[in-house]
Amino acid sequence: MIPDRLDIAWIMLIGLALATILVPPLVVSRPLFANALLLTFAALKGRRIVLDFLDLRSAPALWRGLVSAWVIIVVLFAWLASAIVALI
Amino acid sequence: MSATDCEQQGTGWGILEDLPGDPMIWVLIFSELAAFGLFLGAFVIARALHPALFAAGQATLDAHLAGINTIVLVTSGWAAARGAAAARAGERVRARGWLFGAMALGALFIAVKLFEYAGEIALGNGLETSPFFTLYFLLTGFHLLHVGLGIVILAVVSWGARPEGVETGTAFWHMVDLLWIVMFPIIYLVHP
């Protein structure tokens, strides 16, 4: 059986979830980098869910952009807040 | 086709009609994303104001169990998406099978989360222990309620397994998945 778009999205999500679990040891030595990595993985997972599972790939750009923007704004806000705390 | 026929075919939802499933579910999805976005924003701000307190609270959480639950929920999302694809292809029995798989994995998510709560409560942590645990239990508890509601919705739409019904139910389920994907690193892993 040849994997289709949904299978590939699922494999990517599992890979990113496993990568997320492996990042925490980095938090102690390089917290800002580790936080950026964790939140980038979250944004990439969110993008896969929006495009392939929610099936917004073929939906108007407005809706695809709105849901994708929600993911990016939330993770960016979390990273910026942690960066500000680290730099103060 | 006359203009009257066109009007009768439209449901009056305008541009929301371009989205998969019933437009009403998208009104709910956008409302939920806004509410959870604000809630997560409040969590992030509270953590920035009390970094030591939030770090101490976060250190007592079981990130491995939450990581396992991430794998459970994205696999459930994949099964739900497969169910929607089968329903669109007119394969109702197959669609029901995939949706039952998605519901079973959703139930497993709830079981793992309740086990995790039991461990946290056994350590003496509760809603009033600290601002961290208040926000933690409210955010994850609110999400857990949505997982339960999502299972009920999937059960209802799997009954007839009609394409639009299944697309409507799975759209809600993927929103629940999306929320967890963002919540997991912010609550469990990001260093304050």
UniProtKB/TrEMBL annotation, chain B:
InterPro entries xref list: Cyt_c/ubiquinol_Oxase_su3, Cyt_c_oxidase-like_su3, Cyt_c_oxidase_su3-like_sf, Cyt_c_oxidase_su3_a-hlx
Subcellular locations according to the entry: Cell membrane; Membrane
Keyword Transmembrane recorded: yes
One GO cellular component, as annotated: plasma membrane
Keyword Membrane: yes
Domain Heme-copper oxidase subunit III family profile: 25-192
Keyword tags: Membrane, Transmembrane, Transmembrane helix
A GO molecular-function descriptor: cytochrome-c oxidase activity
Stored Gene3D superfamilies: Cytochrome c oxidase, subunit III, four-helix bundle (1.20.120.80)
Annotated transmembrane regions: 24-46, 97-115, 135-159, 171-190
Family annotation (SUPFAM superfamilies): Cytochrome c oxidase subunit III-like (SSF81452)
GO biological process, one term: aerobic electron transport chain
Membrane topology type: Multi-pass membrane protein
Leader sequence residues: none
Pfam families: COX3
Family, per entry: Belongs to the cytochrome c oxidase subunit 3 family.
PANTHER family, sorted: CYTOCHROME C OXIDASE SUBUNIT III, NITRIC OXIDE REDUCTASE SUBUNIT E
Protein name per UniProt: Heme/copper-type cytochrome/quinol oxidase, subunit 3
Protein species of origin: Bradyrhizobium nanningense
